[in-house]
Each structure stands twice: as C-alpha cells, then as structure tokens.
Design a protein that fits this description.
mainly alpha; transmembrane helix; 14 helices; single chain
Length: 359
C-alpha cells in the first residue's frame, strides 16, 4: 500500500513538472513575460494577489504557490478509479500530454519508462470505460465528447497511415531496411547512395529528353541533316539483327542516343535546337553540381560529431560503436568481432604513439 502511494506521488510530481514546463514554453511563445517563471497563468495571477492587511516575504509566498501548484497537479493527475465522465475525460487528456512531453524531460531513462507505463496503463484502463459510458448516455455534452474522442482516434490512425504510406512510396525502402537489418547501416548506406544517384540521373534524363530529344524528333528536318539521320542501304540489311543492336549499330546508331544524330540548324517551327542543346546541357551540369554540393553540406552537418572521435577514441568506440539496426545473429556476431578488432587496432596505435612521444 505504501509502495503504491509512493509510486502515485512520484508520478504526480513528474507529471506536475511536465505540465509546468509545457505551460512555461507556451507562455514564452504567446506572451512577453518572465522566461524564468515556472508557473501557469493562474499561478502568476495568484502571485499578484496580495492581502491588504498582511504582508509576507516573497520567498515564503513563492513556496506557498509551489505547494498549491503541486496540490493541483496531484489532484488532476490522480490515478484513482472514481470520478465523473468529465473528470475522466480531462484526466485522459492530461495523461496523454504527459506521454507526449516525457521525451523532452532531462530525466534518467528508467524514470521515463516508469512514467510512460503508468500513463499508458491509466489511458488503457479508462478509455474503453469512458467510451462505454458515453455510448449509454444521450445528452448533448456527452455526444460532443464522444465525437471528439472518436475524431481524435481517427486522426491519430490517419497520421500513422500517412507516415506508413510515405515510407512505402520511397523506392526500395523496404529492401534497404532488410539489408540494413542483416548487414548493418554501413552496407545499407551504399545502396542509399545508389538510390540518390538514380534520382539525380533520372532528373537529368527528363530534362534532356524534354528539351532536346523530343523537339529534335518532332521538328528537325531529316533531309537537311543528310547522312546523320539517313541510313545507308547496305546498313539496312543488318540494322535490326540482335548482334548489331547489341553493339549499338544499325537503327540505334541513327537515334537520339548519340550526339551526332542532332542537327545544328533551327527547326521550321522556330525552336532553336542548337541553343536549346547548349542551354539544356548547361542546366544539367549546374543542377548536378548544386545537388552534389547540397548533399555534401548535409553530410558535413551530420559528421560534425565524428570530428571528436580522435579526442576520445575508446569512449566513442565503446558507447557508439554498436549498430542497433542489426537484427540477424550472424551479423551481430560479425559486428562484435569487428568491434573487438577495432579495439585491438586502437590499442596498437596508442602504443605506437606513446613510443614515438618517448623517442
């Protein structure tokens, strides 16, 4: 019994800290008030209320307000079973706010896990009971609460499905995740790089086809191009053979695949093919340069922490060396052997550095 009360007190105190932190962040974004104040609007209004007869010190008054705030939080986040529908509904909202705000708290992981379990147990216990009560009643207020609860659930489900759809629409995402689970993130990064190269080449191909190849096919004068576009009679005999096509001869030789097929004259419709050819290739080079530059900037931001590996080599290897995306026992064994080998190499390098310093 005493242990349950201690757990409830600890949970109430933790929830109170979360609510105060969330209220202080909201006040900083909405109103220009003291950033150091940990209290809500009601608490600050209480701080301003002074008796016309009695005066007390500021420290004593603030301690009283803190006790009052803690009492309100304990009452609002109580884990008791009793309460009306409105109280249960408000408590569910508070517990869900606790679940969403526990990640930002600078607490030990064990305390966070314990707090999340307690909040989830309350939500799991009372959400179904509240739905049953709301289904049995027919008042307007209960109907609004029932609709609000249903809309909240559907919205959460919709957001989760949208995230899953976004992941599903990324090409080869599940295959790369499967490779990552068997061989680690280092091997998966190679395929992620290949996918990035594929998108770069696809965009460049679309630009070239849209502004150079298609206008050349539709508007270019074949007779003015001469032997660039007209196949010789002796070449027509074997132009469609498999061996000829394999060597990119025959009909493929007189196709948009090769630079020599394009003319250096403007089309009859007014489309300037030589200028379009030059400008399009210039745009392609600029786009590829900017894409590579942007990727390098993103990677440089991510690799800022890796610059400190030389300062604490053993600590970095010990605390950040394991790949938690591995899901295969054989891969985990290989990763362990790799880490052991890395430690041995680091020890040898450290010993060599000490020898060089002594010399």
């Amino acid at each position: 019994m005493l242990e349950e009360e201690d757990n409830e007190d600890e949970y109430s105190a933790s929830a109170c800290e979360i609510m105060q932190r969330r209220s202080s962040s909201r006040r900083q974004s909405r109103r220009k008030r003291r950033p150091s104040s940990p209290f809500s609007i009601e608490a600050e209004s209480m701080l301003r209320r002074r008796s016309s007869v009695y005066t007390i010190s500021s420290g004593e008054y603030i301690s009283r307000i803190k006790c009052r705030m803690e009492y309100l939080c304990r009452t609002a986040i109580s884990m008791e079973e009793s309460g009306s529908q409105e109280q249960i509904f408000e408590k569910l909202k508070l517990h869900k706010e606790v679940l969403s705000g526990v990640k930002q708290q600078p607490w030990p992981l064990r305390r966070k896990i314990k707090l999340v379990r307690q909040a989830k147990s309350y939500v799991r216990r009372h959400e179904g009971v509240l739905q049953e009560r709301l289904a049995q009643t027919r008042s307007t207020k209960d109907a609004i609460a029932r609709v609000s609860l249903f809309a909240t659930k559907k919205w959460q489900y919709f957001r989760r499905e949208i995230v899953n759809l976004q992941t599903w629409l990324i090409p080869w995402e599940f295959r790369i995740k499967e490779i990552e689970s068997h061989f680690g993130s280092a091997v998966a990064s190679y395929f992620i790089f290949l996918r990035w190269l594929f998108w770069i080449n696809l965009v460049m191909a679309i630009i070239l086809v849209a502004f150079v190849a298609i206008p050349e096919v539709l508007t270019a004068d074949v007779t003015a191009a001469g032997e660039r576009k007209i196949m010789l009679e002796e070449e027509k005999i074997k132009s469609k053979h498999l061996l000829t096509l394999w060597e990119f001869e025959g009909i493929l030789k007189y196709s948009p695949f090769f630079y020599g097929w394009y003319t250096n004259q403007d089309s009859q419709s007014g489309y300037r093919l030589p200028l379009a050819y030059f400008v399009t290739n210039l745009v392609v080079y600029i786009y590829s340069f900017l894409a590579i530059l942007r990727k390098m900037a993103e990677n440089s931001r991510l690799s800022k922490l890796s610059e400190k590996e030389d300062e604490c080599a053993f600590s970095w290897r010990l605390f950040t060396g394991w790949d938690f995306m591995i899901g295969n026992p054989e891969t985990a064994h290989n990763r362990t052997a790799n880490l052991v080998l890395g430690f041995k190499e680091a020890l040898l390098e450290e010993a060599e550095k000490e020898k060089d310093e002594r010399k």
